[in-house]
Amino acid sequence: MALVVQKYGGSSVGDAERIKRVAERIVATRKAGNDVVVVVSAMGDTTDELLDLANQVSPLPPGRELDMLLTSGERISMALLAMAIHNLGYEARSYTGSQAGVITTSVHGKARIIDVTPGRLKTALDEGAIAIVAGFQGVSQDTKDITTLGRGGSDTTAVALAAALHADVCEIYTDVDGVFSADPRIVPDAKKLDTITYEEMLEMAATGAKVLMLRCVEYARRFNMPIHVRSSYTNKPGTMVSGSMEDLPVEQALITGVAHDRSEAKITIVGAPDEPGTSAAIFRAVADAEMNIDMIVQNNSTEGTGRTDISFTLPKEDGAAAMAALQRVQEKVGFKGLLFDDHIGKVSLVGAGMRSHPGVTAIFCEALASAGVNIEIISTSEIRISVVCRDTDLDAAVRAIHDAFELGGDEEAVVYAGTGR
Amino acid sequence: MALVVQKYGGSSVGDAERIKRVAERIVATRKAGNDVVVVVSAMGDTTDELLDLANQVSPLPPGRELDMLLTSGERISMALLAMAIHNLGYEARSYTGSQAGVITTSVHGKARIIDVTPGRLKTALDEGAIAIVAGFQGVSQDTKDITTLGRGGSDTTAVALAAALHADVCEIYTDVDGVFSADPRIVPDAKKLDTITYEEMLEMAATGAKVLMLRCVEYARRFNMPIHVRSSYTNKPGTMVSGSMEDLPVEQALITGVAHDRSEAKITIVGAPDEPGTSAAIFRAVADAEMNIDMIVQNNSTEGTGRTDISFTLPKEDGAAAMAALQRVQEKVGFKGLLFDDHIGKVSLVGAGMRSHPGVTAIFCEALASAGVNIEIISTSEIRISVVCRDTDLDAAVRAIHDAFELGGDEEAVVYAGTGR
């Protein structure tokens, strides 16, 4: 008998009908002889509706209370899902993050999981019940207050519970058939990947593939927990995320896929003194404002001026705060001006085979050139190349690279609407 | 410094605007130098909406999961209320029933409070915070599962917390100005009572006065906790429920008020054998179906037939099940038929002075006769007379009795819409 942890996102449990379908799938897994633990997100738009209520009451709600509010979303979906399973003749019990033993830091809104003590879940399984757990939430170790885990929190809950319970697999149900060689909405012949290593998945997630969040993949890699990403609308196998690059057979495909990202903006510091300490002062200012920066490029000093331009990318929503932080240090650092550009896109090529094939970068750049896409910033890792281009060129860039590396499959990918948290 | 426990019902926190008004009232109480603990119900229609969702998923949802679902209602309102208080510059922390130490039996949907261990509330108060507690819910002592307390649960939560914290007063905010000598919607000159004893309030609640639920008054009497029933729309003092009849001064008003009830139905067992054991068999059948019966009347045996009619009243919603239970024993008991009548009303007169004034019953019946109201069943306690009449006669009956005992005040009562749980 295997132990399967399943995670269903908000769109999978968006209304009563969908909840009943998910219940059928869970019961089918149970009937096949598995112990089942299910992690569930809040129904469809619940979280947005609750946030809207909070904003009506207070412009800056305290984190503790916002977490208390938002965690009611999963409470609703998990209780309804347990009811639907009961209705099919199987015992199911719902548990809040706190009851399931998800112990976190006390940073409200983006707590991190410290420990998982799933005693009540084990008891439920021993008694033959299916355990339904609220995703996205836990209880802080210090204050015993209810916390939420922030973006990707439900996926992380699922992986963390799977690791703590020594599950055989963690199935993440989503609205796509798995991880694709590119976004099927942009590249119609994008191919579903049957397997992908943790490292490749990390690079794909970090560069914009939305199917799995970075932290969830990091957690899975740390505990070596296989993740099966699959669709809640079909019974087809999805993509198995597991194993290390080191274990890949030599004949493994060179390239995994193309990821893209429209969520970033670019800030350019114009005319900064080309001397030691300038970059340090600039990035200290941004770091102190708690911004995460992504790619950085520093031009060669314009001859004779002793000055240079420095550009970096960061999430669009952090743009305003970063500009303000930089403006405050302008005089001290001595740069001439600041530019903000949120019409950029980023396209990345990921593949474990890349590191031993120096020709990849050349093919990559030639493909972009043929498609008439201008490269503004370029950065690479051992298994990834990323470039920044105009946002209007992004779709063409994704298609050109996908074609150049012959990543396409034979059939068109099916695309569903909606996404969960 | 006094400790005040306040309870706000669902209509008082029905939307963001009302939540902000309630927050202002709470802060005013805090500013006046009091420690404040607030018990809050779910917003307006939340509970009905959640029940509707449950019914879409399962025709007979398990009690444990229904309680898990419904308790999300208070979670939402309490977090929003805490945010609104923060926004006014005061520290507020919300607590679920479980976190507040409300320990209950494990009967889902109608759990009873066994114990209250408000350690976290005390800490919050000691640290200068206002504590907001979810009404209507607790955690079962045996299973550690979340429970709900059923009807009147939020009021009972407030009284129980007030008793456990040795509060000075428990204020129950509602949509009327207090307890009235009759329902102001029927009797325009009904008078707000300044004080009422626990015993009188119990009789009023038991006979249809909806402002306080029976179990909450029982709890308050047991712990001798004064309840101040008042309006959340004004600052006027309401009605203080406290003290025993035994302590009333001799010159205390004879009569407290008139209560009425439209929620009952009458079942008549026709042609039952007039012999020992008949009533026992009938009421055993009803009791085994877990019905609560209220008033009972048995006619004298019709001369020569050896048969009699027995009527009793019970909540309308239990009518169908009671009829079915009786039908199953018809052959064994040997009665001729069953009648069901849900067009009845019940009017009651309550007053601590009644027991020493035998003339009350006469005035009561004369008033009904003058108003042309026919009495179908009559029952009395030491401080109450109740009669069943046609439901169409009920308003006239209430007014006639209210007039006959000169219970009216000088000003018209203000009536607000809505009610909480």
From TrEMBL, chains A, B:
Give the ACT domain ranges. 267-343, 349-421
Q: Name one GO biological process term.
A: homoserine biosynthetic process
CDD domains recorded: AAK_AKii-LysC-BS (cd04261), ACT_AK-LysC-DapG-like_2 (cd04923), ACT_AKii-LysC-BS-like_1 (cd04913)
Residues involved in substrate binding: 47, 74
Q: Which reaction does it catalyse?
A: L-aspartate + ATP = 4-phospho-L-aspartate + ADP
Q: From the Swiss-Prot or TrEMBL record, what is one GO molecular function term?
A: aspartate kinase activity
Q: What class of enzyme is it?
A: transferase
Membrane-crossing residues? none
- Pathway note: Amino-acid biosynthesis; L-methionine biosynthesis via de novo pathway; L-homoserine from L-aspartate: step 1/3; Amino-acid biosynthesis; L-threonine biosynthesis; L-threonine from L-aspartate: step 1/5; Amino-acid biosynthesis; L-lysine biosynthesis via DAP pathway; (S)-tetrahydrodipicolinate from L-aspartate: step 1/4
Q: What is its EC number?
A: 2.7.2.4
So where does ATP get bound?
Answer: 7-10, 174-175, 185, 210-211
Q: Which domain of life is it from?
A: Bacteria
Keywords for this protein: Amino-acid biosynthesis, ATP-binding, Diaminopimelate biosynthesis, Kinase, Lysine biosynthesis, Nucleotide-binding, Transferase
- GO CC annotation: cytosol
Q: One of this protein's Pfam families, by short name?
A: ACT_9
Family membership noted in the UniProt record: Belongs to the aspartokinase family.
Q: What does this protein do?
A: Catalyzes the phosphorylation of the beta-carboxyl group of aspartic acid with ATP to yield 4-phospho-L-aspartate, which is involved in the branched biosynthetic pathway leading to the biosynthesis of amino acids lysine, threonine, isoleucine and methionine.
**Name listed for the protein in its UniProt record:** Aspartokinase
